[in-house]
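Predict the 3D structure for this chain.
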Amino acid sequence: MVMRRSDFPKDLEPGLNAHFGMAYRDLPEEWREVYDTDSSGRAFEEDVLEVGFGAAPVKDEGENIAEDRGGQGWVARYDHKTIALSFSITEEAIEDNLYHRQGPKYARALARALKHTKEIEAANVLNRSTSGSYLGGDGQSLLSTAHPLWGGGTFSNRLPTPADLHETSVEDLLIMIRKCVDDRNVPIALSAKKVVIPPELEWVARRIFLSPNRPGTADNDINAVKSKGVFSSDPACITRLTDPSRWFIKTDVPEGLKLIKRTGIKRGMQEDFSTGNMRYKARERYSVGWTDPRGLFGG
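Done. Predicted structure below.
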């Protein structure tokens, strides 16, 4: 749809004092708090599970040494999306505007629109983290109590019963992280890195994680999570999370939640010979998702 002079009637007359509505400060790139970044030179990328050995058994005297085998398991696939937007302005709207050049201003708005989409795409991975319609390479949702282990059995990265953000529920999830195992059921050194919350839990989180003593009690006990220094930074508040009570803990697992960039933002501008309209566009390509579900635990 072409923008015409009728879309900017006040810009054609003297006496206009100010424009407003497009000069707000933007939020920082919140997705960077949750996702690791990678780059790609192909239409898609795949990460494959590689599995080592389990526990070595006791060998009885004179008996043969037992054998084990490793191998490869399921595959996480990242199919890159193309995100793009354009607009056009008539030649007359550009010529008759008395106050500013519309093209450059709306070109900046294109970049803002693409940034907004990236935040939505990243937040939706968390918003859909328990949905059976959005499955990872292991056939389970991002948060599940039944992630399959290659060597048999399952592991969980969510509380068995969803719980509100509270000192007790945080400690329960930290214990689950501490006891996490690899695909041969061998315990791994997994560390909690950051709490991820919606805006509705921002102030609750500050009371839980920044108070030197246990929050919400008359006891003089220390705040165990704070005194142990579990989290080195403040919680990541993600504006576009849709569930006001859902919270998460990001871990330091390699190849967890990832945003893979295929191409950065590319801008284009050209004049249409027949109409004189100026056309502007912007596009980028990337994929966002997860490989190892141990990268995120949920309450």
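The CA atoms of residues 50 and 72 lie 5 Å apart.
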